[in-house]
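We close this part of the discussion by returning to an individual protein. Part of our work consisted of pairing the sequence of a single chain with a tokenised description of its backbone. What the numbers capture is local backbone geometry rather than side-chain detail. The amino acid sequence and the backbone structure tokens for this protein are reproduced below.
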Amino acid sequence: MIPDFQGDREALAKVMEAGPDTLNHNIETVRRVFRRVRPRGDYDLSLELLRQAKEMSSGAVTKSGMMVGLGETWDEILETMHDLRQANCELLTIGQYLRPTKKHTPLIKWYTPGEFDELRIEGESMGFSHVASGPLVRSSYHADEQHSAATASISVR
């Protein structure tokens, strides 16, 4: 998992030259909520980083993750998933936001297991090689299975 390097393309190039099995950079949340959750981050910069990683190494596997429950709408979740696919992101994790302390952003909505299943199905229909979606899913959730799904998808192309 890498930061956005504040847009430093050379820093990303160094990572890509190392040939990571999977390059993970989490989008974290939808565009509208992004600044509240990642005040020093930039939604579009995160997407550009994933896009550039694929440009630098077309065979690289790219992955991102997001949390839900921060006040986003269903359509915003789908839009974020679409944005990630437009950036050629292949693997996605979607998990429930859990408020770590009272100082952090409050939990707005608890998603049901059925809603997480719907998001997985939506992601698969968008063309993600693998979507792990559930209340306790985190970025590293079954990473080996996700990587295997992505590499199998690449070898079929």
User: Anything to note?
Assistant: The chain has six helices and four strands. Residues 5-151 form a domain with the TIM Barrel fold (CATH 3.20.20.70).
